[in-house]
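Researcher: Re-running this chain for the archive, since the previous output was lost when a drive failed. Same request as before.
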Amino acid sequence: MGEAARLARAVFLPLGTTETDDRPMIFSMQLLFEAVVFGILLGCFYAAVSIGLSLAFGLLDVPHVAHPAVLVLGAYCTYLLGSYGWDPIIAGLALMPLFFLFGVAMYRFYYETFEKRGTDAGVRGLAFFFGIAFIIEVGLILAFGVDQRLVEADYIGKSFTFGEMRVPLRMLLAFGIALALAAALTLYLSKTFTGRAIKAVAQDEGALRLMGADPVRIKQWAFGIATGVTALAGALLIIIGPVEPMTDRIYIGRTFCVVVLAGLGSMTGTLAAGLILGISESIVLMHFGASWAPAVAFGLLLVVLGIRPQGLFGR
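Model: Regenerated structure tokens:
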């Protein structure tokens, strides 16, 4: 489970012990409470890194399997700006306009090459976005190598202590940013004409044209927003822990699980689904160890697809 598992292990250990101590973890209500608390923080982080995919795949029906790779690209761009003294969060915010333009260009190429032709657009689109993910991953390896990269900030490495429980400050930061992103996008999609058009574009393009809106431009704008938000999520990713070019493979299952579990296109549902996944992983980690935690996302995905394919919150 990587850095999240290491953080969880640190949370569950009593003060005065180290991660190398070989002490059995005895179940108790205190440990369960700590697992739930950490799961909430971890779940908000999962929601933050999935919210761009919820917009691109959930509302636009674009098979954006390159989302985790773009997420890692945002983390590396944050690392580059951090080497010049930029705070990671400020760097993530500064990268959002550039990633917005990147998303607009990426969708335009996808539309002109695949979606405009109609036939087999979904299958060919998958190949296109897998290609984008591969290009990003190889480009990062050529530019930075395979070594892990991290950033420095005053709030990284610090934690709050509540009794015998330690809560990393960087997880609280992810919690706050996830709430802010979900609230901002929910308001934008429900209170503005463009936002309502984004919600309608995948359902009835003909009706949207009658309202005077160009569906292609709406999708292009929305995909740009989804990619721009991913830049800030990438900053969170490298704040939580070190990244490497292949980190995207760790998150592809989790991000799609959150989006499908939420119900395609639901921003508040994405937040709730992230919490469900985070708490479930945290409890499994406490009982069965870190090796079982990655299976939680795929297990939840299979259960939801079998019982409620539209997701917990619908579309």
